[in-house]
Amino acid sequence: MGGSGTGNSPCASCKLLRRRCAKDCIFAPYFPSDDPHKFAIAHKVFGASNISKMLQELPVHQRADAVSSLVYEANARVRDPVYGCVGAISYLQNQVSQLQMQLAVAQAEILCIQMQQDHIDQQITLPTTPLLFDEDDEKSFLLQNNLPQFLNFTPFNNSSSVNCDSFKKGTLYGHDMVS
Ligand SMILES: [Zn+2]
């Protein structure tokens, strides 16, 4: 518990490792003494000597980014010991694909509405025979109501695929029992 005697307070790394913080301490620029948790968690996951080696292999201008990446990964590893930051990455990738799905559905809906709008415009500007009107109205009505549902239920909806499987199994079993 005695004073260091050097005058300067040691960085968070040297404080935790209980050693003298040299003037050229590799940790000092990235692990200030006022944030001891930052080094503690990186040390716990990677080890001080590994962090030191990694920093020495990098040019100085890349070291700050490397440290923030190491600290992020260490925090993720503590939160999720099995997957670490891979857990967060796959969660976010999953969200991206779900949002891309929603976007595709929204774009399909926009397309349907535009087609219907075009059709209404055509009706106003170019009157044709009443028989053709009815046919086209029916088509666009079906398109507008079925396409979004089709997109919603087909690719990622588990309950619908379960239903399909159980339906197929049911018919297969039925067929087996008959033959
Ligand atoms: Zn130090």
TrEMBL record:
<feature type="domain" description="LOB">
    <location>
        <begin position="9"/>
        <end position="110"/>
    </location>
</feature>
<comment type="similarity">
    <text>Belongs to the LOB domain-containing protein family.</text>
</comment>
<dbReference type="InterPro" id="IPR004883">
    <property type="entry name" value="LOB"/>
</dbReference>
<dbReference type="Pfam" id="PF03195">
    <property type="entry name" value="LOB"/>
</dbReference>
<protein>
    <recommendedName>
        <fullName>LOB domain-containing protein</fullName>
    </recommendedName>
</protein>
